[in-house]
Every structure is written in structure tokens, then in C-alpha cells.
Write a structure and sequence with these properties.
β4 (about 105-110) and β5 (about 115-120) form a beta hairpin. The protein has a 5-stranded antiparallel beta sheet with strand order 3-4-5-6-7. It is globular. The model has no long low-confidence stretch (mean pLDDT about 95). It has a single domain, classed as SMI1/KNR4-like, CATH 3.40.1580. The protein has helices at about 1-20, 20-25, 35-45, 50-60, 85-95, 145-155, 170-180, 185-190; strands at about 30, 60, 80, 105-110, 115-120, 125-130, 140, 160, 165-170. The protein is of the alpha+beta class. It contains 8 helices and 9 strands. It is about 40% helix and about 15% strand. α1 (about 1-20) packs parallel to α4, α3 packs across α4 (about 50-60) and α6 (about 145-155) packs across α7.
């Protein structure tokens, strides 16, 4: 699974490069050692996790100073939090009744929505926390599944740069791609839920 996570991240990076997202690539910070990531997690009372450690060994999120938020998006709508910012956001939300103490945000939209890893589930699925909602569904079975799906979004031209220079996506095509690559995730495969409506 770790190799799939790293392969997906490499493909996402290649997709950003092909789309000319130089600011995003410039803002990515050098990676951390697994020990450093583990120390941040432990300080927050969260368990060690090989996939999260692999993610942060690739890059320690993005530095936001000196960049426009739209330029930082690693996929449409979301930027990659540094481990310090991830833990800061975790602590800010952990007492919120909509939040679980087992959730660590990894990607943020800057307005209170996150993609987060659920440490309360042994498979470590990725949930989408929407600030205005009460349900926060699993959208990917794991971080590696999410990265492989995002890589597919770049490689199949589901993600694109619009005329104003913003990273955008075709929502219907992404839902179709996500259903294809995540056949066991009901968010994408059940038409009564949000993915394919």
C-alpha cells in the first residue's frame, strides 16, 4: 500500500507539472522522516500510520506564505496541509461534535472542509468532512486509493486549467472515474448518495 501511495503521489506531481502548476510544485515542502511524522502524531494522541508517514516523507505539505490559495491546490479545491498544520486543524476541530478524535485532516480547502484519514478504522479510509454537513462519508478506502484516483484524474484530463488559470475538474467524469477505481465505496457506486447523482 505504501508503494501505491508513493506511486500515486508521483503521478499527481507529474500531472501538476503537465498542467503548468509551477507555483503548486514550488510550494511543496521537503519531506519529513517517518520518525518526525510519528512524533507529531503521537503529540496529538494519534497512532503511528505507515501511509501517513509515507505521504509526509514525500512532502511536508505546502507552505502557504507568499502564494495565492488557488495556486496551492494539489487537486481541484484542496491543498496539502503540512503535518504541523494538520495537527493544528485537528486540535481546532477535535472538540466539535461533528468531528471524531480519530480523524486527521490531510487536505484542506481553506474554508473548513477537509479530506481526512480515519484512524478509528483499521483500513484507514479517507473521509470528506464538509463544514456545513452532519454526515462525513468515506470517499476512498485508503490514502493510496485516493492518490491513485487523483492520478487518474490528471491522466484522463478530468482535471484541467480553465481560462482564468484555475485548477478545475469535470465533476461527472470524476465521479465516474472514482466509481470505476473504488468499486467498494458506496459514495461513488450508490446513486442515492452524492457521488453519482
Amino acid at each position: 500500500m505504501i508503494s501505491a501511495t508513493l506511486q500515486g503521489l508521483s503521478r499527481v506531481q507529474g500531472g501538476l507539472k503537465r498542467l503548468g502548476r509551477g507555483a503548486t510544485l514550488e510550494a511543496l515542502q521537503p519531506g519529513l522522516s517517518p520518525t518526525q511524522t510519528r512524533q507529531f502524531l503521537q503529540a496529538a494522541g494519534l497512532p503511528a500510520d505507515a501511509q501517513t508517514e509515507a505521504l509526509y516523507s514525500w512532502r511536508d505539505g505546502t507552505r502557504t506564505s507568499g502564494f495565492k490559495l488557488d495556486d496551492l491546490q494539489i487537486f481541484p479545491g484542496f491543498y496539502f496541509l503540512s503535518i504541523e498544520d494538520a495537527v493544528h486543524n485537528y486540535r481546532a476541530f477535535v472538540s466539535d461534535p461533528r468531528w471524531s478524535p480519530n480523524w486527521l485532516p490531510l487536505f484542506a480547502n481553506g474554508a473548513g472542509d477537509f479530506y481526512l484519514v480515519d484512524f478509528g478504522d483499521p483500513s484507514r479510509p479517507m473521509r470528506h468532512f464538509r463544514l456545513e454537513e452532519t454526515e462525513h462519508p468515506i470517499e476512498f478506502g485508503s490514502l493510496s486509493d485516493m492518490m491513485m484516483t487523483l492520478a487518474g484524474g490528471f491522466e484522463r484530463s478530468v482535471f484541467f486549467v480553465d481560462g482564468q488559470g484555475y485548477l478545475e475538474m469535470d465533476d461527472l467524469k470524476f465521479a465516474t472515474l472514482a466509481a470505476e477505481l473504488n468499486p467498494r465505496v458506496t459514495w461513488w457506486t450508490d446513486p442515492t448518495l452524492g457521488g453519482l447523482d
